[in-house]
Design goal:
This protein has 242 residues and is of the alpha+beta class. The protein has one domain. Helices cover 36% and strands 13% of the residues. The chain has 9 helices and 6 strands. The strands form 2 sheets. It has a 4-stranded antiparallel beta sheet, with helices on both faces. A two-stranded antiparallel sheet has the order 4-5. Helix 1 runs antiparallel to helix 5 (84-110). The longest helix has 27 residues, at 84-110. It is globular and about 50 Å long. The two termini are 34 Å apart.
Length: 242
Amino acid sequence: MKLSHTIEKIVRTEVTNNFLEYREPIIGYAAADDPLYATLDDKIGARQFHPKEMLPDAKTVIVYFIPFPLSLIHAIRQKQHIVPMWSQYYDTTNELLEKIGKNILIKMSALNIKGAMDPPTENFDSISLTGHWAHKASAVIAGIGTFGLNHLLITRLGTAGRLGSVIINAAIPPSTRPSSSYCLYYKSGKCRVCAEKCPSGALTEEFFDRFRCNAYLDGKNIRDDQQGCPVCSSGPCADKGF
């Protein structure tokens, strides 16, 4: 069995066996020496780890996106800015992503392949509000999707979902990247739903103020450990890319 098939089986099995419903996961691969990794510090505006800093002999970055179900997307498209169902999925999916990553590492170890991973969340500096390992950037490099005006990853199945990644020292052919953006605004300039709906004013056509967004979340979270606002994920790109 190809190594990629082994990895994809682990991801799909864990998603299928979870007690929450999801759509079909998207899995992609990036070369650890892809030159785009060297550009991330400037693009993100904060120091980012290179795959080879995470794993010195890294060859491949595995990225997996788990799309939320249409029932959740329907819920977050309503007028409420706080959606308990979103919080449940956010927390549970983070646990699922970590379980998938650990299971991949266990399987790789059994095949004498070294690996490394960073948590899917809570891996950021509390002052700058930036992480040292960008799952979203790796997803773009791995061909899973493109960035949208909402500063989120938009895949062919949309933006409503969660990401995880694992680095290994075995080579898997890189996935093909999309030839154009999945974001309607970047394609035609006609969609600004995410910016127009942002309840905090943190997101505009010109910039994204992560500090303002975080302050809003701190004030609106249902609990300290929950993610309360899904609005930037509720536009036309929530369930599909364009």
